[in-house]
Design brief:
Number of strands: 5
CATH superfamily: SCP2 sterol-binding domain
CATH topology: Nonspecific Lipid-transfer Protein, Chain A
Number of helices: 2
CATH architecture: 2-Layer Sandwich
Structural class: alpha+beta
Number of domains: 1
Order of helices and strands: EEEEHHE
Shape: globular
Largest sheet: 5 strands, mixed
CATH class: Alpha Beta
Strand order of the largest sheet: 3-2-1-4-5
Helix content: 10-25%
Radius of gyration: 11 Å
Length: about 80
């Protein structure tokens, strides 16, 4: 599971079941903290996770290997 903290709200992405739920998950493998505009840019493909991280716009806690695989978000659009 991945936890996204976006504009003060927590969203849990369950990679095994393929679902998204509002609220936090204590067993998340990684937590990503980002503002909504930056997440939208990541999803649209106009920004990369690496670029956002390097510019201090994306915080990653936990297993950072998941940050390298955030390209799957483009498929959600």
């Amino acid at each position: 599971m991945l936890l996204f903290k976006v504009d003060g709200a927590d969203w849990t992405v369950d990679l095994k079941k393929g679902g998204v739920t509002k609220g936090g998950a204590s067993d998340a493998a990684a937590t990503f903290t980002v503002i909504g505009e930056e997440l939208l840019a990541l999803v649209k493909g106009t920004e990369t996770a690496q670029s956002l991280y390097q510019h201090g716009k994306l915080r990653v806690d936990g297993d950072v290997r998941y940050a390298h695989r955030l390209a799957f978000l483009k498929q959600l659009v």
